[in-house]
Design a protein that fits this description.
globular, 0% strand, cell membrane, transmembrane, VTT_dom, 81% helix, mainly alpha, membrane
Length: 229
């Protein structure tokens, strides 16, 4: 519980954390930002790292001449692209093997029909998904992994991977650079971060909930006597 509270406190006060870190360790802040963005996009077990906040606040520090803007953009772009690539390769390597297993215990929980649907979805909409997922916390961590599992081609994946990373990094870093040091925004930065995360996550969560409820309602209707008449 204490660890969770510390993490929430870090996310809510990431600007103060970065400010102190820059004062104490200087250029090492670039390595920290690279590592956080890489892990958030590259490791499916770390989807809750504050990538959006870091990009925005990094831009604000660049505007205050505490970081170099060009170096920050290039570093974060490399971290975002390589993180997604690693995630994709892991999904591509282990996904099909897991779903083709004949281990009785695993077969009870695996849905091969769902894998085929995912494959078909990425054939039709995979490019848009990879780009748009960049702006949705948690979803951006799983999107490249699912792309790998579904068998999306490397060439097509990398095209949209780079485009999405470039758009994500440039937009958030430059927003932070031009607006992050405005007194009002600086004062209410934590609220703005939470509102931004909520605006991205809540519609996705509500959509998933609605789909689940619709599916359960359909299943319930199908089980009623005489429903097939």
């Amino acid at each position: 519980m204490d660890t969770l509270l510390q993490f929430v406190n870090l996310v809510l006060h990431i600007d103060k954390f970065l400010g102190v870190f820059i004062q104490q360790y200087g250029a090492w802040v670039y390595a920290v930002l690279f590592l956080i963005v890489f892990c958030e996009t590259g490791l499916v077990v770390l989807p809750f790292l504050p990538g959006d906040s870091l990009l925005f606040i990094g831009g604000a520090f660049a505007a205050a001449h505490e970081m170099d803007l060009a170096a920050l953009i290039v570093l974060l772009l490399v971290a975002a692209v390589t993180g997604n690539t690693v995630n994709y390769l892991v999904g591509r390597a282990i996904g099909p093997k897991v779903f083709s297993t004949h281990i009785p215990v695993l077969e009870r929980f695996l849905d091969r029909a769902a894998l085929q649907k995912t494959h078909d979805f990425y054939d039709r909409h995979g490019g848009k998904t990879i780009v748009l997922a960049r702006f949705i916390p948690v979803v951006r961590t799983f999107a490249p992994f699912v792309a790998g599992v579904s068998g999306m081609s490397m060439k097509r994946f990398q095209l949209f991977n780079f485009a999405g990373a470039l758009f994500w990094v440039l937009l958030l870093v430059l927003l932070g650079y031009f607006f992050g040091n405005i007194p009002f925004i600086r004062q209410y930065l934590n609220v703005i971060v939470l509102v931004g995360v909520g605006a991205a996550v809540v519609p996705v969560a509500l959509g998933a909930l609605w789909k689940l409820m619709s599916r359960n309602a359909s299943a319930g209707s199908a089980r009623k006597p005489g429903s097939g008449r």
